[in-house]
Structure to design on (652 residues):
């Protein structure tokens, strides 16, 4: 069944625009209106109005704990969880753990105590601490503990990035790996390295937080020391966008002198210059499936699949070269 | 007294980096470490550890309702509210109203019912609906109803942008005004027009949501019809960044052929190419003061100032020309 997201994608507008159109609330340009109407027909989309009867009962509240509200990946993910929950008549309360295990533990305590019927968490702590006595789903980051999970096949995605980077002819690579406490960042490193196995490529690995500012500073320092680097893999799009800015400040042309690939597929990758080649997670689908998996538990339905891994797709934009070396 | 934000600013790193440094949790590059330590000394910053004793009592929960989690301005604002609340031993629960008055009303009902001790709201509804029986502060957007408010002097800021645009020699301007239901967007239009009064400038005004995608589409359509436009004022940074992309797609050079000024001062404006000239709201200070104003009410302290308007500052980057016409 077509979702609001499918309509947005087909109409080449944002989900927010479609929801403004559907709720007749706020401005939608004539061109967008027409595109949305076309998409709704083509997909024969039927807006779901369960949400109209939203309740304020505790039993309709879902807690969503994300690690960094300033990384656009998480707002986009949260937006998808909210849309879906709303469609099913649930309300989402957001908590930002700020990649701090203590804050995360605190939020888990606050929410489980008395506030929500279930929790979706992107944990900064692979052991998710504190005893949880209500339905829960781990989103994006798979914890060591045994919980229902919805995530991207990170290893596969990073391997795709590695193979593509090779095809583009890079010879000396900088890998901006993510925080070491994250399983997903280790998986992305592993996948990328797998693609380079046995190839005659020089590799530098440095850890960078998923953050524009730090990624920029770290890349700047590193490129100054290693001017022969001609390719960068950012383990997140914000890392890659930070790296892009560092290249600009050093007067290194992207993609002519240095090629850059990110990971995540945030909307922002379209708005940098050059636009960012990236391994796109299906962000909306991730949030949607996590919400559905949680709601199934809350409503005591049987769960067909407890662990969902979604395949990412490589989106080729302008931060990598067009001509391939086979 | 110096805050974590002052330290971040002085050290030229993000607030998140400083908090990672202080909590010794997560990666901080050597260069950043040194910069942070220097800044802490120079500002003689004393980290506040009230937060260590965070409680999960209802009386320590604050609700924060924002209108659009996907507009980076609001995550940055939320981050500031959280930092401050945390410093005072409070926990923040976030709600994303999605610019939908019905969702906003619903969240107000949910939160006031039983969950939080006070609410900070950036309302999408100038009349803030529903009876609120707990302390509340209106943040960023000043509602018609009589509430304590923390906001930016929008009219003044937009007037600064207008004067600067004139100084840069633009002759035909496109104003991407914000959603008409927002007082702030009307104030920004008013302020910008005030600066142009009596000047021989051609002006086009079109409404655009505060959103990359729509702003890009709207600007693209408009520039095709009016190729002689040589200046654009985005009533928000995301509008301006969308406009920047539209110019790129149309092959119009920024700032040589078209100059662009935004409004907000989000971190992202540093990461576009060219980087964005903008009227920067003091985002962190806005969130900080709103949290303090709310906590004063929650704790029954007397409030010296019920309405706070913070002066913005013009940040000149590369989307406007350097040589001024006097």
């Amino acid at each position: 069944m077509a979702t609001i997201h499918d309509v947005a994608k087909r109409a080449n507008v944002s989900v927010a625009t479609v929801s403004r159109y559907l709720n007749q609330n706020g401005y939608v340009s004539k061109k967008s209106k027409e595109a949305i109407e076309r998409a709704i027909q083509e997909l024969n989309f039927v807006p779901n109005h369960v949400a109209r009867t939203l309740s304020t009962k505790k039993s309709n509240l879902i807690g969503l704990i994300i690690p960094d509200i300033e990384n656009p990946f998480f707002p986009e993910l949260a937006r998808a969880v909210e849309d879906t929950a709303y469609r099913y008549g649930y309300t989402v309360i957001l908590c930002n753990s700020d990649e701090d295990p203590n804050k995360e533990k605190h939020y888990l305590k606050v929410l489980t105590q008395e506030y929500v019927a279930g929790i979706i968490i992107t944990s900064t702590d692979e052991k998710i601490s504190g005893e949880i006595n209500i339905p829960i789903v781990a989103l994006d980051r798979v914890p060591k503990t045994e919980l229902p999970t919805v995530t991207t096949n990170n290893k596969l995605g990073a391997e795709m990035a590695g193979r593509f980077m090779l095809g583009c002819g890079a010879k000396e690579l900088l890998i901006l790996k993510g925080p070491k406490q994250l399983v997903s960042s280790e998986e992305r490193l592993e996948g990328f390295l797998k693609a380079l196995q046995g190839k005659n490529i020089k590799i530098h690995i440095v850890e960078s937080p998923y953050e524009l500012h730090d990624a920029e500073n770290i890349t700047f320092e590193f490129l100054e020391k290693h001017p022969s680097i001609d390719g960068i893999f950012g383990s997140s799009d914000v890392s890659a966008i930070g790296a892009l800015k560092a290249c600009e400040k050093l007067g290194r042309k992207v993609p002519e002198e240095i090629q850059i690939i990110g990971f995540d597929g945030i909307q922002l990758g379209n708005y940098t210059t050059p636009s960012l080649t990236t391994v796109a997670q299906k962000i909306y689908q991730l949030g949607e499936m996590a919400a559905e998996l949680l709601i199934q538990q809350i409503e005591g339905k049987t769960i067909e699949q407890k662990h969902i891994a979604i395949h990412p797709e490589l989106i080729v934009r302008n931060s990598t070269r067009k001509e391939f070396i086979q």
